[in-house]
């Protein structure tokens, strides 16, 4: 089947089975690297993208359910020389170790900031709960989000 | 480190043997990669430092072209620990040139020196030291060439930091011009002058990691992101976990699935190759519809890690000392354990393999590409020089996870598809089910203090499998026992001291009287195991630091004062004091049934980085849930190359160790592992990370590099258990310290 898909402001025609998870369309058909395969079960968040502005697990989103909603991946926020403020904050905080989870972290955090530009520390932690990081970069990820949200440090639990 | 320790103590019978062992094992311990994996390359220049011992030719490490651009090689791999950037800083500093003028090539069996494994916190020690000294040698030669060219003495010249050599009279020679007159195909000398820490331009700065921008923007940063022309996708079809076999995989049905190009079958090894990744996964699911049987050894059963104590073992004397009869006033006895852990990489293992013109090239995130190119060659039946392994980053591995197996399997599949690049990725449940786990372990301690509140007796035993089952031949891969003809399983062997294995850090850095420390090495493995960050040090430090707190309490001494009273190493004392000062230890709140504080210390392997941790927690008595309010750490990693990188490793180590200690436990039933996803194998999430983590670096300018990647693992879990004991008055000995266990213990304590 062919589908029309808007990803990072560009429209693509893709030929794939209706139930193909969006993750494999983005990676396999469109050659994007941001969304990662982590679990395929919606438990780790490595595949997080924005769909119609909301953070979703692309590994659990069948292509046919995307409809006309716009897909945004980390590539759509900015590139190496044109990072958006959140990506820049991650760079400034050196908020990555292996970095495999980071594109998903950025996409989930960006969805929060788009809706609520000044979340509290508790709101940030609660919002980020679905995404796993195994390297233990959490403190830096929180700092990077706080930087953009202008939340004072140490307002934590 | 070792010789004075042995000198200070009277060694029991067989003393000469112990001394001889320490001397030979020092050579082993200094082998590249910390003694994990294979023997590594031969030492040819013992007078040189780091990996220059095994590869002394300067042009193996550094080449400078006529334009003054440098190409630098290292055998160590970027695992997410930031080593690429730290090493680049080191070599740029000693070459005295901008990092941007350096092309840096890492861990490629076709291009870089063999530096063994990227493991054991050895990369700064092995490669950092080699690059520092190779850089110093090259800088010295460049200055010499410039002196000759200008006809003035070397002492009138200095490098400028921007790729030039300047004379006092203002004349300048570029590195390119100087290099044209030089051959770097010369062996390093041991005394090339190093740059002084006071004049560092690149080292000891928070230089931004070179690999991070691509990771933040969806660049091609990982082996998972490789897309070679004509590449196909593979999945392996397996039983639910290691030691199982599918009885009747539905191959016929899989073959009919859309996009399936090939089914690879060799003995029990079964793989699906499809045009697209999702097609390979769907076909794998269809093929996997089958019963399974258990083929492997019996799992640990209800005894958990204590099962190891009932298996045959080989006793290794770690340390014994006789300080004469000492009175004991108080004694602490206990047995501690940790379960089997998953490495828990967020990205399941992946590799790309391509057989082209009779040569197999593999892109792998293995920590041991050099062992791998030999072992994979044996597996697929090629000569080692026909197999090239190029390290390509992936999700963090923290040890020997599925990376090596997935790589070997990609190689086997690619051998059947000449000319076609094959990308294989394991599924989440395959990673949990088939990777080697971190070892379950048990310890027993009986220790006493005398009237002087000093430790009078210290009897310690540890039971563990080998933490080093990395493939050094084909038999080290799980698939080697599935294919026909197969390869017998590699025989496990412990890593000897001074690096240590299950007994890593079982020998105290503290000064204790009358020690008897034994490692019961258990060859039989109820669960497939291998290296996980810090190996046996995690439980040994957990046990030692728990016993110290209990004995301090029994003697009515503050835990910090008690530790300091048993510690002569000034650097150890300094990190303990730095962490506890920053924490406000002397003014800390005292355990009140709910809140409490704990500290712990270790020098990793007694020869790596020093790390002390202090933390404050709160227990919700109704549920046993633990909140960690704040953590202070201090670390001495020798001369820092990138302080921010050291902080990042310690912060991450703290969170990972808290996750191990509170949550993690690879479960199993009678036939298989039952942890197969993040629901059945939970790890720490955002709601449980500490309120704050502050890492203080104790700088040791000019002293040897000490890798910091594993230093926090033991002290953090230990400090947590000590804080629980302080808060609730109960000593929990068996990890994980889950809310249910904490609640039950509090209940029992009334």
UniProtKB/TrEMBL annotation, chain A:
CDD domains: fer2. SUPFAM superfamilies: 2Fe-2S ferredoxin-like, CO dehydrogenase ISP C-domain like. Residues 1-77 form the 2Fe-2S ferredoxin-type domain. Pfam families: Fer2, Fer2_2. One of its GO terms (molecular function) is 2 iron, 2 sulfur cluster binding. Keywords: 2Fe-2S, Iron, Iron-sulfur, Metal-binding, Oxidoreductase. This is (2Fe-2S)-binding protein. It comes from Novosphingobium lindaniclasticum LE124.
UniProtKB/TrEMBL annotation, chain B:
Residues 217-305 form the Aldehyde oxidase/xanthine dehydrogenase a/b hammerhead domain. This is Aldehyde oxidase/xanthine dehydrogenase a/b hammerhead domain-containing protein. GO terms for molecular function: oxidoreductase activity. InterPro entries: Ald_Oxase/Xan_DH_a/b (IPR000674), AldOxase/xan_DH_MoCoBD1 (IPR008274), AldOxase/xan_DH_MoCoBD2 (IPR046867), AldOxase/xan_DH_Mopterin-bd_sf (IPR037165), N-heterocyclic_Hydroxylase (IPR052516), OxRdtase_Mopterin-bd_su_IorB (IPR012368). It comes from Novosphingobium lindaniclasticum LE124. Pfam families: MoCoBD_1 (PF02738), MoCoBD_2 (PF20256). It comes from the Bacteria. SUPFAM superfamilies: Molybdenum cofactor-binding domain (SSF56003).
